[in-house]
Task: structure prediction
Amino acid sequence: MSPAAGDRTALGGPLLVACALRIEQMALRSAGRGSPRGTDAHGGAQGGAYGGAYTLLRTGMGPCAAERAVLAALDGPGMDRAALLATGFCAGLVPGMSPGDLVVAEETRDPRGTVPCTGTALLAEALARAVPGRTVHIGPLTGSDHIVRGRERAQLRATGAVAVDMESAATLRAAVRDGDRPVAAVRVIVDAPEHELVRIGTVRGGISAFRVLRAVLPAFYEWHRSSLLPRR
Result:
């Protein structure tokens, strides 16, 4: 008989899901009411049908805040072998992208280095099942310490990146600082070349990206379960 998901988690490591903004946390927490048992920075267990466990971490905005929060979280009891997935909203760099599209990072990069991601293809397939009808883009996800617009967006696209956000690169770099662990980044586009936002607060008006972020947790669990299997 194969081990249950919870048993594999005990043998491997828990899942830490990191986001930066309160609205991202709200989307993930509301989805978590029907998902596996989990906790977040504000406490409160969440139970549901998928199996497994996760911790939701809100890091705060920007790379420095993300790095500090992740290092502190991974220093906690039982987190030495945790898998980490960075998520939230991002700006798309490729013409034709639309709000609500998904980005799965092949790698995260910023001026301090590059971190390759684990299980990219499997994660993209799981997201396509979790959010049918949404386009899933795969490619490098680049980091910035500020909101990117206009000409700078085109310059980042010229490097081969498909999207940009402020925390993923710092989050994954902190996660692998002291050794190898499964890491990934999934972002939902709220801001694209033909759909630039004036401010992130526009998301609160009911933009489709919020609803997409609520729907992705099952794909995260599937990715986590696959990361617990022996690597070949």
Notes: The chain has eight helices and nine strands. The mean pLDDT is 82. The helical segments are 5-11, 22-32, 63-74, 120-130, 150-158, 168-175, 208-215, 217-227. The first helix runs from residue 5 to 11.
